Amino acid sequence: MRALLLTLGSWLPALALAATPVVTKAAPAAPTPVAAAACPTILQHTFPRLQDEKPQALCQYAGKVLLVVNTASYCGFTPQYKGLEALHARYKDRGLVVLGFPSGDFAQEKSSNQEIADFCENTYGVKFPMFAKSAVRGSDANPFFRQLAKETGRAPLWNFHKYLVGRDGKVIANYGSMTKPEDRALVAAIEKELAGGLQVKN
């Protein structure tokens, strides 16, 4: 009997260990991918690209700081193309995109998109995104410019009107044709928005 008890005594620790549930540590959950920035309502439009008329969704610019400009080839302000391209080149790596919208609303634009594209590239070396010719004011204005006018209370009065749009899709300010791309106030507003500064209502 004593021998049996001794034998059982030697098995008990092993039996107890075998009966203990084994807890397996769960592998850490895979990190959830960061969702892409939601596209603001003001950018939920698609326009043909100037060079080849392929549809381009403005949502691709969500999260960027935008300078939206209505342009023309035969205007006294047409040389502003040079300054706009310089702005785009200087700040594009920090998140600025200049968007050009040729328009014949003031009877100073070429007749075809191809002519406009050739003029912009050959004369001013324009590389910032440009879209097919469209109306930018009045009842025929394209929907993007209608929204910009609604947000600011001001439609373009002439060619090279400028709207500054923040990363969140809110319009920060708008500037008339006389404001050059290198204007100090405009550049300061762009830099402030690129740096994440407070939005300034115009």
Helices and strands: which structural class?
A: alpha+beta
- Give helix % range: 25-40%
> Order of strands across the biggest sheet?
4-3-5-6
- Spell out the CATH superfamily: Glutaredoxin
CATH topology: Glutaredoxin
N-end to C-end Cα span: 99 Å
Q: Could you tell me the mean pLDDT?
A: 85
Quaternary state reads single chain
* Number of alpha- plus pi-helical segments: 5
The total number of structural domains is 1
Care to describe what's here?
The chain is an alpha+beta fold and 202 residues long. The protein has a single domain (41-194), classed as 3-Layer(aba) Sandwich (Glutaredoxin). The protein has five helices and six strands; from the N terminus they run αβββαβααββα. It has helices spanning 2-19, 80-91, 113-124, 143-152, 184-194; strands at 46-48, 55-57, 65-71, 96-102, 162-165, 171-175. Mean pLDDT is 85; it is low at 1-36 and 197-202.
Entry summary:
This protein has a single domain (41-194), classed as 3-Layer(aba) Sandwich (Glutaredoxin).
Write the layout of secondary structure elements.
Layout: H1 2-19, E1 46-48, E2 55-57, E3 65-71, H2 80-91, E4 96-102, H3 113-124, H4 143-152, E5 162-165, E6 171-175, H5 184-194
Parallel strand pairs: 3-4
Antiparallel strand pairs: 1-2, 3-5, 5-6
